Amino acid sequence: MFIDVSSLKKSYISGAVVNEVLKEIGMELDEGEIGVILGPSGSGKSTLMNIIGGIDRGDSGRVIVDGVEINNLNNDQLTDYRREQIGFVFQFYNLVPNLTVGENIEVVSNISKSPLNVDEVLAAVQMQDKKHRFPRELSGGEQQRVSIARAIVKNPKLLLCDEPTGALDYQTSRSILKLLQQVNKKYGTTILMITHNAAIAAMANRIFKLRNGEIVEAALNQATVPAERIEW
Ligand SMILES: Nc1ncnc2c1ncn2[C@@H]1O[C@H](COP(=O)(O)OP(=O)(O)OP(=O)(O)O)[C@@H](O)[C@H]1O
Ligand SMILES: [Mg+2]
């Protein structure tokens, strides 16, 4: 298994109150698969994703990604892991406002070990014509395309997407989902995606439903649907 999580626990403590955010999480995802995490607000989706991505740490349990137990890494190793292996896409793009589209992607490729070509990834997200624009000159969907290009230019093993279509309209959401599916096919990138939209699960190989810090359902989807055929 490419991602192998078992007995993962995470609590936040404020004063005398212990908030058990992840209770006893187990989940698996194979290399090259798309996984979708569904669940209500506050159920622990982002916390789980951030631990898998090395942004946060679990309290106990096992989190193995591509054979490495990331809970055992020290802070420097965890930073390297995050930088070299993980691409992140967030709901609100997080582009650097005073850098052009091309520069936003170059700053990542410059610090990557085996980056893809900047123009290639711009073409892959169909933003090659807007390389010299600034983020404020782009629509939300275009900014999300750039943020996906920035996430994949480092040629990450794992692409983590936290509600990537959360701020986008219907048609734009579908084009972003299609793009993620293309990235998965073209580069073989394993993708784990959080969404509130259960319809999106149709494009995933595995679906995880989180409730109150627990996986209440893990399903294998043998008949994945192309993103452009998903409707909601
Ligand atoms: N840094 C933190 N300190 C304290 N509590 C936190 C912290 N981060 C998250 N929590 C708590 O953990 C719980 C789960 O948060 P999380 O962000 O993982 O939820 P989520 O499923 O991603 O929700 P949403 O759909 O709203 O994004 C929430 O109750 C939240 O308040
Ligand atoms: Mg969240």
From TrEMBL:
- In this chain the ABC transporter domain maps to 3-232
Q: Which GO terms describe its cellular component?
A: membrane protein complex
| UniProt xrefs under InterPro entries | AAA+_ATPase (IPR003593), ABC_transporter-like_ATP-bd (IPR003439), ABC_transporter-like_CS (IPR017871), MacB-like_ATP-bd (IPR017911), P-loop_NTPase (IPR027417)
Q: Which keywords fit this entry according to its UniProt record?
A: ATP-binding, Nucleotide-binding, Transport
Q: Name one GO molecular function term.
A: ATP binding
Annotated family: Belongs to the ABC transporter superfamily.
Q: What is this protein called?
A: ABC transporter ATPase component
